[in-house]
Amino acid sequence: MTGQIVVAGALISPAGLLVAQRVRPPELAGLWELPGGKVADGETDAQGLARELREELGIEVTVGARLGADVVLPNAMTLRAYLVTCTAGSPRAHDHRALRWVRARELDTLDWVPADRGWIPDLAGALR
């Protein structure tokens, strides 16, 4: 497969699903997303997601099963979501405006980044 892989982590705890509010770019600022980022050359999806969540949230995670379908983004990028389990640390917003725990019933009320919106049914199922 060619193109850039972007990974997102669905961290679910007794408090719900962790979502992050974007700071940038301007057109996405204030919108909510699953935290994550680009997989670097030589990394697996799991390695890239664990690194991104360490950088963005200050936590260590175990990456689990895929969640939902790939989302094709502009500029030859593919977005993938994975279930993750926090193994160390407490999430802090290092790279986001805010973090929030949400329940399944709140998923439809969030102002999501467009790319993550398609995962709402999968996220709702994972939260039940």
What's the number of structural domains? Answer: 1
Number of strands: 7
Going by helix content, strand content and strand pairing, the class is alpha+beta
Radius of gyration, rounded?
A: 13 Å
CATH class: Alpha Beta
Q: State the distance separating the first and last CA atoms.
A: 33 Å
Give the overall silhouette.
globular
Going by CATH, the homologous superfamily would be Nucleoside Triphosphate Pyrophosphohydrolase
- CATH-defined topology: Nucleoside Triphosphate Pyrophosphohydrolase
Number of helices: 3
Mean of all residue-level pLDDT scores: 96
Explain briefly what this protein structure is:
It comes from Mycobacterium adipatum. The chain is of the alpha+beta class and 128 residues long. It has helices at 45-57, 114-117, 120-127; strands at residues 4-13, 16-21, 32-33, 36-38, 60-73, 77-88, 98-102.
Provide a descriptive summary of the structure in words.
There is one protein chain. By secondary structure, the protein is of the alpha+beta class. It has a single domain (4-127), classed as Nucleoside Triphosphate Pyrophosphohydrolase (Alpha-Beta Complex), CATH 3.90.79. Helix content is 20%, strand content 41%. It has helices at residues 45-57, 114-117, 120-127; strands at residues 4-13, 16-21, 32-33, 36-38, 60-73, 77-88, 98-102. Strands 1, 2, 3, 4, 5, 6 and 7 form a seven-stranded mixed sheet that branches. It is globular and about 35 Å long. The termini are far apart. It catalyses: 8-oxo-dGTP + H2O = 8-oxo-dGMP + diphosphate + H(+). Its cofactor is Mg(2+). It holds the Pfam family NUDIX. Its EC number is 3.6.1.55. Residues 2-128 form the Nudix hydrolase domain.
